[in-house]
Design goal:
The protein is of the alpha/beta class. The protein has 10 helices and 14 strands.
Length: about 325
């Protein structure tokens, strides 16, 4: 199925992102520990993450030209996180270091057997954008604007500016924040976590919830990622489903798999692929990401992705 919109030409960037960055502390455990116990950890690393920042890194590795706007703390973690973007080649001229603030951090406990994780996080309120502080020039400068809705009213201003300038807006949202309902009418591609449609609509059935979102907010594409069950999109009046794919040598860490899916999907859109193929690319990039610890560590470049596709992706069966 073809996309129900076209991309603008003659933009400075292929994709631009406005949203979260973070520094993750990943801890691998034999299994999730019970209360009041002591368990020796298997592995620990510090890694850069954050939904939108990681998506831009994923796209940059796949050969796209990207830019990122977000706020970092004036601490060592902030310096580390910002430098990782620059090292990847992501344009960070709209990124800000906020004095006397701390970078968003997450402590992520990973089950060694499954690669599934539990996240504990904190974000400094000084990093919240007011509506007058957002970098509107960035919203005009890409073929695609990617958001994560952690600053819904700031995202609203960015999405409005994108729409006025023919930029397609993509949204990755994992929970219902205040202001989300005002933002959604300006979103072209909404691919959320599995719990968001139910939280937004009160409807438990996945298909019915997606239909309700499309009817209420008129997003061109609505859908959700479903972990090992893959992803489902509702376009026009048709549902599209694509399986998740097996991780080479088994999943080591699912942190950032959703961010990787968005990177693969947007990559396909920018390359002129049809929607089902973009979903498959999202599943492939997510699977490859899960090979190693960290949200970005194993994000593939174009050659790795092409090799994986040529070897034949194996869908996870239920």
């Amino acid at each position: 199925m073809k996309f129900p919109f076209t991309l603008s030409e003659n933009k400075e960037f292929d994709a631009v992102g406005f949203g979260l960055n973070a520094v993750d502390h990943l801890i691998v455990m034999p299994s999730y520990p019970a209360f009041d116990t002591k368990t020796r950890l298997k592995e620990h690393i510090q890694s850069a993450g954050g939904q939108t920042a990681s998506c831009m890194v994923g796209l940059q590795r796949l050969g796209m030209k990207t830019a990122y706007a977000g706020r970092f703390g004036s601490d060592a973690e902030g310096a580390f996180g910002l430098q990782t973007l620059k090292d990847e080649g992501v344009d960070a001229k709209h990124a800000e270091i906020i004095p006397d603030s701390k970078t968003q951090i997450a402590f992520i406990v990973i089950d060694e057997q499954s690669g599934e994780r539990t996240i504990f996080w904190d974000r400094d309120e000084k990093h919240t954008y007011s509506q007058s502080e957002v970098p509107l020039s960035l919203a005009r400068s890409g073929k695609v604007l990617h958001l994560d809705a952690h600053d819904p009213y700031g995202c609203l201003q960015m999405a409005r500016e994108a729409k006025r300038n023919g930029v397609i807006t993509s949204l990755d949202v994992d929970k219902l924040y205040d202001g989300c309902q005002e933002l959604l009418p300006y979103v072209d591609i909404l691919i959320s976590s599995s719990n968001f449609p139910r939280e937004l609509t009160g409807i438990r059935d996945e298909h019915s919830a997606l239909i309700e979102i499309k009817e209420r907010f008129s997003c061109a594409i609505v859908g959700m990622t479903l972990g090992v069950r893959g992803s489902i999109l509702y376009v026009g009046r048709e549902f599209l489903t694509v399986a998740a794919y097996e991780v080479p040598n088994g999943a080591k860490d699912t942190t950032g798999a959703g961010d990787a899916y968005h990177a693969g999907f947007i990559y396909g859109l920018l390359k002129g692929e049809e929607i089902e193929d973009c979903m498959k690319l999202g599943s492939a990039v997510a699977a490859l990401k899960c090979r190693k610890l960290g949200a970005r560590t194993a994000l593939p470049d174009e050659k790795e992705l092409e090799l994986y596709l040529n070897l034949g992706m194996k869908p996870i069966e239920f």
